[in-house]
Records
---
Amino acid sequence: RERLLVGRRQAVLGPAYRLFYERPLHIVRGEGVWLYDAEGTAYLDAYNNVASLGHCHPRVVEAVARQAAELATHTRYLHDGVLELAERLLATLPEAIGHVMFTCTGSEANDLALRLAFAATGGTGVIVTENAYHGVTLAVAALSPSLGPGVPLGAHVRTVPAPDAARQADAGFAAAVAAAAADLQRHGIRPAALIVDTVFSSDGVFTDPPDFLAPAAEAIRAAGGLFIADEVQPGFGRTGEAMWGFLRHGVVPDMISMGKPMGNGYPVAALALRPELVEGFGARARYFNTFGGNAVAAAAALAVLEVIEAERVQANALTVGARLREDLRALAARFPRLGAVRGAGLFIGIDVEHPDSRAPDPVAAGRIVNGLREARVLISATGPLGHVLKIRPPLVFSEAHAALFLERIESVLVATG
Ligand code: PMP
């Protein structure tokens, strides 16, 4: 049946989209941390950071359904839902961040950030990490090296190594940013921005030490550019300690993009920024996004903010995540295929390596990911070579779920050798 669907999908959607797993899943229902396939088999979701509060959280479902039944249209009328959402979001952000502009996807939020950064600085140079992903529009795809050689980086883009503490001192990151900015200037390109995912997910999950970002932000500002925090992955409590990944680093970005878990499955995203950066923009140019901040999206995102607080999901992510990392380190000590375990809250990366040479082993990582899928646990792999296991369950993952996860990954490690 899956094979039939894969063929049908290929026939109508074409070859550009990829599915997870050697045996793709046909998921028909989700509830809490569980996903169910067409046969009713339950899969433990240890990957999904869209349904971050658990699949089909009743409060979000109810808010979306209620609003969809009342009004669902474009965004050219006054509506209070979006204002309440903006006020609530801004209350979670540093004081200097005074405006929020709504989009439908993280890509659009980053695209807008770029456009505003170009306008505010008069520059066009952008610095990103070596395996960054910032989205699919042509502008942000040109600063997403993880998309591979099929999407060439712009001539105005420079890359810096991700802050891998095992390979370089933390000061190295800011120094690399300063050098990249100087290289842009040498080529007659004015630096406009440093844009980073503050947990460096596609680079391989680098969350620590939690203070290396501030000097990097200083370095880009000294060169006349802005610091943009891409919070699409770490935002909304994922890191446990804080609502936003950049808060762990004690740095205030000029702009902050957010999306993914913002609507717990409903598409809603945004760019929050220092008000000065958009002043005058309205006179020179306009921005309109038909569905950005529409009433249903606002209802979903408001419900998400309420649930994060009411159910203390951040505290859960912090304690369950810390314990899980500890247990995974104990597992890594017994299975030499596993290397360093990194992360914050419920965002965890584990290196998979050749047991003798300690070289990255993406093939073994793939075997573990697919083995877990057969054991009905869902994770993925990331990093420049695809050798980093990415474990990122819904924030309502309990100690019992973590114990089940450990039991299954251990049996897969035993079976895959
Ligand atoms: N930035 C980061 C760090 C992301 O991980 C993603 C999505 N994977 C995006 C931006 C783009 O978001 P979207 O797919 O909603 O456009």
---
Amino acid sequence: MDNKEQYKVRKEPFYQAQRNEVALYEAAYAARLPVMVKGPTGCGKSRFIEYMAWKLNKPLITVACNEDMTASDLVGRYLLDAGGTRWLDGPLTTAARIGAICYLDEVVEARQDTTVVIHPLTDHRRTLPLDKKGELIKAHPDFQLVISYNPGYQSLMKDLKQSTKQRFTAFEFDYPEASVEAGILSKEADIDPGLAGQLVKIGQAARNLKGHGLDEGISTRLLVYAATLIKGGVEPRDACRMALVRPITDDADIRDTLDHAIDTTFA
Ligand code: ADP
């Protein structure tokens, strides 16, 4: 049996609010409106949802979507075992049954048929048809659907359809403003604010290269990685090359430009 408690976020996650998103999310949840969180990778979307699940004291079921994911992966399937066939609920079905917040991370990655199954859950019906099982689930009153997506690097082909988009309320996230981001780094990795400020500066230099050789800037997540390595004793220039530059580019010119920015910052 699925245990609601196992999906609860037990410890308060550290989340630095950027604007009034916490109050807005609470209002959306109160009305059980579906929520979409847009923004570049590693800017705090998942952390925000985790924090909200904790604050609202609701179970959270997160599904990282990928291109091989089908509707059955979300909804469930029959399994064959020694005892014969038995049905196994997928994560979306579990969330609808127990009244969890279901967070579909990077939903556009999943195949089109998955977006179709979420539709009846996002309107007044709040139902989930399990076609293969011949069952129609009525979502638990606490159930809420949340999706994230990164509009930046999706090809037009992979964009969400308007008929899906227009079923959601939406938050537009971006990398935090410099002082806020420095605060996040110093809290997450326990580093001093001066060092956090230097890392943020490198992040910003890279973000200016977006569209000029870089598809995405350096994320807050990577800045946290760099901060963590430095905190662990790695020399700052090595830490930055390893956490901030090598992961994001294979282009020698861009790499040299960023390495240079690092050397200047930590000269
Ligand atoms: P994504 O937008 O890809 O879901 P995450 O929420 O996983 O990104 O954020 C990546 C990391 O960045 C987090 O693990 C956390 O360390 C840090 N982070 C980003 N934004 C915030 C924030 N507002 N408050 C606290 N941590 C943050």
